[in-house]
Amino acid sequence: MNALQTAATLLPKMTASEKAQLLQWVISDLSNDFPGIEKTPGVCGGDACIAKTRIPVWSLVNSRRLGMTDKEILYNFPSISSRDLKNAWNYYRAHLSEIEEQIRENEEDN
């Protein structure tokens, strides 16, 4: 079964809220517009960061991977909001290989 067939199977099982979230993800992916995420040359190596911070998306993704909940991440990064996290997760979904590579590079450096 391909991804489109899987989506067709899952769509009727989703709530209206889940469908709305899915639609937001699709629109973000298609437009490549991720509000609240910016890349600035010379800041964190030009990696995608939460806007106006030096907090890279890969770091947030890695925190989640290590078992932290969104609530714990927000506690540990008090300068960001839940909206910032949603933007980071959306960016990650659309740029999976980029973020995975940045996590690998960081692990190699440590």
Account of the protein in words:
This protein is mainly α and 110 residues long. Helices cover 61% and strands 5% of the residues. The chain has one domain: Winged helix-like DNA-binding domain superfamily/Winged helix DNA-binding domain (Arc Repressor Mutant, subunit A, Orthogonal Bundle). It has a two-stranded antiparallel ribbon. The chain is globular and about 45 Å long. The chain starts with a helix and ends with a helix.
Short synopsis of the structure:
The chain is 61% helix and 5% strand. The chain is mainly α and 110 residues long. The mean pLDDT is 90.
Rounded mean pLDDT is 90
Shape: globular
The CATH first-level class comes to: Mainly Alpha
Q: What structural class should be given to the helix and strand makeup?
A: mainly alpha
Strand order of the largest sheet: 1-2
Task: Give the helix proportion (percent range).
Answer: 55-70%
Element order, helices and strands? HHEEHHHH
| CATH architectural group | Orthogonal Bundle
Number of strands: 2
